[in-house]
């Protein structure tokens, strides 16, 4: 029994290695540009070995997106605190979101953002519930800003704008060049919030 558990743990580790390597390759080259051979090479495996863990490249993409959504939701829930002032809660959400998409090694959500169309409809439907939960946390925070007088206009539009603007940073942000994620978060907050009356 102990041997079986040890082997299973090793299998899970190899599966995780494949998912992490694929996330980096999908982010750098796009889903279509990353071959199964490249994924296998990145983890020191024979070309066909990833198929022991995954039925197809599509299944690897699904695993990458699932891991990104799981990590993102977990980190986001951790900064949501009842009773926080609306602007303080917004600032915390902005900072954690920037970390989720821009910190070194966090390739999962950027892959989802720019390769969502590569998922088939069945997998998109399965993943949307988790994505909707993430959006709901943000919508509540933006609604709070509106009620507190920090933000005017349509709150759904405001949520889409702030997340869209931050997500686009994936295309131009360079770690260790210019702003840190902390100073970038402060700039995002300052840009989107009006002065409290």
From TrEMBL:
The keyword Plastid does not apply. Residues 12-72 form the HTH tetR-type domain. Residues 35-54 bind DNA. The keyword Coiled coil applies. InterPro entries: Homeodomain-like_sf (IPR009057), HTH-type_TetR-like_transc_reg (IPR050109), HTH_TetR (IPR001647), KstR2_TetR_C (IPR041490), Tet_transcr_reg_TetR-rel_C_sf (IPR036271). Keywords: Coiled coil, DNA-binding. Pfam families: TetR_C_24, TetR_N. Gene3D superfamilies: Tetracycline Repressor, domain 2. PROSITE patterns: HTH_TETR_2 (PS50977). It comes from the Bacteria. This is TetR/AcrR family transcriptional regulator.
């Amino acid at each position: 029994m102990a041997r079986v558990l040890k082997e299973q743990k090793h299998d899970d580790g190899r599966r995780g290695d494949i998912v992490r390597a694929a996330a980096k390759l999908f982010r750098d080259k796009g889903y279509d540009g990353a071959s199964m051979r490249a994924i296998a090479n990145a983890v020191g495996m024979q070309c066909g070995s990833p198929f022991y863990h995954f039925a197809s490249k599509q299944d690897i993409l699904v695993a990458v997106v699932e891991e990104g959504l799981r990590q993102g939701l977990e980190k986001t829930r951790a900064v949501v605190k009842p009773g926080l002032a609306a602007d303080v809660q917004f600032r915390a959400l902005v900072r954690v979101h920037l970390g989720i998409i821009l910190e070194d090694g966090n390739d999962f959500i950027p892959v989802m953002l720019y390769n969502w169309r590569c998922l088939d409809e069945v997998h998109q439907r399965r993943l949307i519930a988790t994505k909707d939960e993430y959006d709901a946390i943000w919508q509540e925070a933006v609604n709070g800003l509106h009620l507190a007088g920090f933000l005017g206009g349509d709150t759904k539009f405001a949520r889409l704008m702030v997340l869209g603007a931050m997500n686009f940073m994936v295309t131009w942000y360079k770690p260790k060049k210019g702003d840190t994620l902390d100073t970038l978060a402060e700039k995002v907050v300052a840009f989107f919030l009006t002065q409290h009356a």
